[in-house]
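Weekly sync, protein design subgroup
Attendees: M.S., D.O., the rotation student, P.L. (late)

Item 1: inverse folding check
M.S. brought a backbone from last month's batch and wanted to see whether the design step gives back something sensible before we order anything. D.O. pointed out we never logged the input encoding, so this time it goes straight into the notes. Structure tokens as presented (187 positions):
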């Protein structure tokens, strides 16, 4: 994992090649398998690898369909489960994965609109927004950390990912009241 991550950071062709070689399903499987015997360092590295790989290259439809509701809930629960741990190794890597998956869903939703020859008849449901619309009050730490991250982050691409999620949350009826008023004042 370390080798792939470092190689991807130094060679821009590595992450796209990993997606072409169907590494995303295996990575998803490894992250999910880490639930029981989580080595925090390995888990963090797997999350960072998923973020970087999904950030630089568009996932194909088949890979994105493998991300199910239980995986998204797991990521949100991971953030909530360590919300009081100051030295938490999961918050930002996990949040970044959720943000990049949200963008991948947004990209996938444009396929059926922009490409009339697309064979995809049913657009993918954005599982990030779906989870927050159904269970938002259970995952308040995520919202608080997204706002904190937006205020502190210097990486433009990550700021854009956050703004895309905020746009969806504020324009979706089920989630437009997800954030506390005080959090919005901080924003």
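Designed sequence read out in the meeting:
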């Amino acid at each position: 994992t370390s080798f792939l991550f470092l190689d991807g950071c130094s060679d821009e062709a590595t992450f796209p090649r990993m997606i072409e070689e169907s590494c995303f399903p295996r990575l998803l499987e490894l992250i999910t398998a880490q639930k029981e015997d989580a080595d925090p360092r390995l888990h963090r590295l797997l999350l960072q690898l998923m973020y970087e790989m999904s950030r630089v290259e568009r996932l194909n439809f088949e890979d994105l369909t493998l991300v199910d509701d239980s995986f998204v809930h797991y990521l949100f629960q991971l953030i909530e489960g360590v919300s009081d741990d100051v030295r938490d190794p999961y918050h930002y890597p996990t949040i970044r994965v959720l943000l990049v998956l949200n963008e991948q869903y947004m990209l996938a939703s444009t396929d059926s609109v922009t490409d009339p020859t697309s064979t995809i008849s049913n657009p993918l449901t954005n599982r990030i927004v779906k989870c927050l619309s159904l269970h938002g009050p259970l995952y308040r730490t995520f919202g608080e950390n997204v706002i904190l991250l937006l205020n502190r982050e210097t990486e433009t691409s990550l700021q854009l990912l956050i703004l895309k999620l905020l746009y969806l949350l504020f324009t979706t009826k089920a989630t437009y009241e997800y954030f506390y008023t005080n959090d919005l004042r901080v924003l």
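Discussion: Residues 2-186 form one domain. The chain has one domain: 2-186.
Action: P.L. to compare against the previous round before Friday.
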